[in-house]
Amino acid sequence: DGGITQSPKYLFRKEGQNVTLSCEQNLNHDAMYWYRQDPGQGLRLIYYSQIVNDFQKGDIAEGYSVSREKKESFPLTVTSAQKNPTAFYLCASSIDPGNNRYEQYFGPGTRLTVT
Amino acid sequence: DQQVKQNSPSLSVQEGRISILNCDYTNSMFDYFLWYKKYPAEGPTFLISISSFKDKNEDGRFTVFLNKSAKHLSLHIVPSQPGDSAVYFCAASARGSNYQLIWGAGTKLIIKP
């Protein structure tokens, strides 16, 4: 089945530790995105990548880092510099929007809790 | 500054009736609008979209209406079913924005039996 997988579903970390969230897609989509969702808020864009080996900061990139070494994979590292890392993290992908297709398809999300 | 606003945090509708979810936007450069549905602890699921060239798009029980002059769009669900209970997000995109989606805060729809 084609889709986006995120692992793990739940993740617990101690304050001061870096943690990497996995995102893999087998939809052959060019673009991939990382969002953060906090209670009562919409999705906020952390980073996005339109092509392998290239990525851009979103609205709230501080304290996060990404890599895009393969088309299928877009891991997100939450560093100790991120002041409020506890949140629900969502990965998404989309077909090349140059075809006028803006729809993004989402993985199941990772709930990160930092104590 | 919120460019996409969903002013109703929640909406309660009787099963079988029409659900109307609203969304307002401020950026006149937005030319594509999408609605997503989200269950707790899951990723959003794409529902329906509309281009700024149209004022209506229909897919089964879901219809999206766009009023460009009012910078307003709405999602109609008819008839409402218990499985429609979820949070609905409105999102918008503008040409030249690297196709980023700007999201509203969501409206929680509760379908009462």
Alpha-beta content class of chain B: mainly beta
Radius of gyration of chain B: 13 Å
Q: Which of globular, elongated, flat, extended, rod-shaped describes the shape of chain A?
A: globular
Question: What is the average per-residue confidence, as pLDDT of chain A, rounded to a whole number?
Answer: 91
Please state the CA-atom Rg of chain A, rounded to the nearest Å. 13 Å
Fraction of residues of chain A in helices? Answer: under 10%
Poorly predicted runs of 5 or more residues of chain A? none
Instruction: Please count the beta strands of chain B (DSSP E, at least 2 residues each).
Output: 11
Instruction: Tell me the span between the first and last alpha carbons of chain B.
Output: 38 Å
List the helices and strands of chain B in order: EEEEEEEEEEE
Basic shape of chain B: globular
Mean pLDDT metric of chain B:
94
What is the strand content of chain B?
over 45%
What is the beta-strand fraction of chain A? over 45%
The N- and C-terminal alpha carbons of chain A lie at a distance of: 36 Å
Number of continuous helical runs of chain B: 0
- What pair of chains forms the biggest interface? A-B, 28 and 22 residues
Order of helices and strands of chain A: EEEEEEEEEEE
